[in-house]
Batch of 3 targets.
Target 1
Amino acid sequence: MSKTVVTMGLGCVTLFGALIVGFIYLGSTGPDIAVYTGRQIPKEYMATIRSLGLLEVGEDIRYFYSDALFDIETGFYFVTTDHLVLYSSAWEEPATIIPLDQIEDVEAEFVDSIWEDSFIYVTTASGLEVSFPVSSEQGGDKRFMQALEQSLAVE
């Protein structure tokens, strides 16, 4: 066997190993790909939410989802007992906080794939229209949607 073939083989094995290690690292450091219920949200995520001033005293998060790979500040979305909160560092105004009693309509585009997120579309009484992704894993998208629909039923 030539030296070039052995070198190329070792290079391929090394690259493959690096990719595996990279995927393991991503899976262990980034947010879970499922929707968290309020009690399951990691302490470091709660610390970020509080440091950004997105949660009022006494307000409880019902469902939380982040589509970020590493740092949740890239994008996260949650519904509380009183508000729908959408946050993305890519937006001109990173935080959108909508009182639940201002939500006029909620629709969803559900998907069954773990590779794609479902999308929820919200329209407020003032005419604001927003959409955000929610993971379909373990039915989290449907539970998140139900929490928003329940706020409409209260009116």
Target 2
Amino acid sequence: MSDKKPLNQIIWGAALLMAGIGVFYRIPHVMPKIFEFETDSFQQGFIKLCFYVMGIILAGGGIKKILANYKQLNSKKD
């Protein structure tokens, strides 16, 4: 079971990375729908900031998980 753990974690990291990229891709499409509600410019900026931070955290966490487990997977093969 422990032999597959790094590979499973790499797959999970790839899913996190793709989710983060997906957030960046969807932000321009979703923002006009969200801004239909009565919001001022500060609220709109804060909403955009939150979405971008969420995308950065997802993508960064995925990259970190992929790199850490890839190194662990390579060290077991040696």
Target 3
Amino acid sequence: MPPESWFWTHDGQQHQVNTVVTAGSRLIRLSAYGSGASRRFAGLVYRDGGPERTYQMDLDAAAATACPHPVAVTVDDERRFWVVMEPARAAPSSLRVHLEATTVRAALAAGAHIADLATYVSDGTRYYAVVLDERPGPCWLLAGVTAGELRSGLRRLHAKPTLIRAHPDEPRFTAVAVPADRPPRYWYTDLTGDQVASRLERKGSYPTDLDAIRTPAGVRFTVTMRRERHWWNF
């Protein structure tokens, strides 16, 4: 079901996170990018009557994995973790960090599902921070792919992405995919903020996932969105 209403924001400073979560709304995801004085965040907020959510910022790996009931994670350019949690969550979930792609795929093969994912590089190796939970149906990880490889992989699996993460240091992406469904789910990469707004309006859709990175050309977004008959934002 689509949220009653929603909004997304970007170019926010850390002290402004509280201002984007108003009474009756809840935080779906934070995306942190940049470092030092230039560090910013993008946020996705729903008003949908769902359970209350909380968040923690600037966590090291040990503190991040200790967060109870995680639902979303991001890693900033200084490899500090921001975690969104849902205290009333009944289904179990966990956050694991510093995983390579083979380890993530092994967890999926054992029946886990990726609720959220962030990626970062340490000592030349790409790692993943992954929120795992339990849901029915298959879930696939497409790691380190070009845009063309992502499209062909989705066609091969007859799947749609639930989230896409751009790699800031290379023109590649990591995506999580599930079987294709209705209503349609759209996805875009390498968008400016204005282009995100334009795609949402043109498709009559609401965002289901949003991520931002800082590149030499400026901040760029990846977004997945879903079309519904009735939608609006505030």
